[in-house]
Amino acid sequence: MENENNKELNNTKSELAELRKINIQTTTKKKWTAEKILKAVVLFVILIFVWVGIVQYFVADKYDALVGVQAEGEGIGVNPTTEELDFGDLPKGDNLMRFVTIENSGEMDIYVKIVKTGNISDLIKINKNNFVLSPGDSTKIGFLLEMPISANKEKYKGKVIIFKLPKL
After folding, report:
1. Does pTM top 0.85 for this prediction?
2. pLDDT at 77
């Protein structure tokens, strides 16, 4: 009888050890799976933000911005075009304002963000940036270019990008 009890006790211990082993493996697998899921979700969110940023860049209004520096005594040369922010040729110390009208033809508010790039970006001041435009509204944005006295006689170039993001 004692021998049978020992056998039964040993079998129970073996079964218990096996159950612990299975439990440890299952717990480890669940934890590993949760980590993988979390990493996948984080990666997915990052990819969504990158994709939205790329799409927004391609649908944004982009204007080439340029200005030349004129020698003193020469007149101001202006190229009136609506496709780019061409400030023509300006003498040192002078300034010129150009305008762009944007409108919200959608059905929800949009957030407008304007970004300047290139060596012309420090010369341009924007009168309105980082604002919300309601559906059906339009606004005129002024771009003031101030040619410093210290400007080199060269062409200053860059881009002005107007992002129109849905306001959430």
Report:
1. no
2. 54
Q: Provide the β-strand partners of residue 69.
A: 90
Give the number of C-alpha atoms closer than 13 A to the C-alpha of residue 130, restricted to the C-beta side: 1
Q: Please report, in angstroms and rounded to a whole number, the separation of the first and last CA atoms in the chain.
A: 77
For the segment 32-79, what is each residue's pLDDT rounded down to a tens digit? Answer: 678 888 888 999 999 988 887 788 777 788 988 989 888 765 555 555
Q: Tell me yes or no: is domain 62-166 CATH 1.10.3450.
A: no
Spans of all domains in the chain: 1-59, 62-166
Burial of 40 (0-12, 13-18, 19+ CB in 10 A): exposed
Assess contact for 167 and 70: CB atoms under 8 A.
no
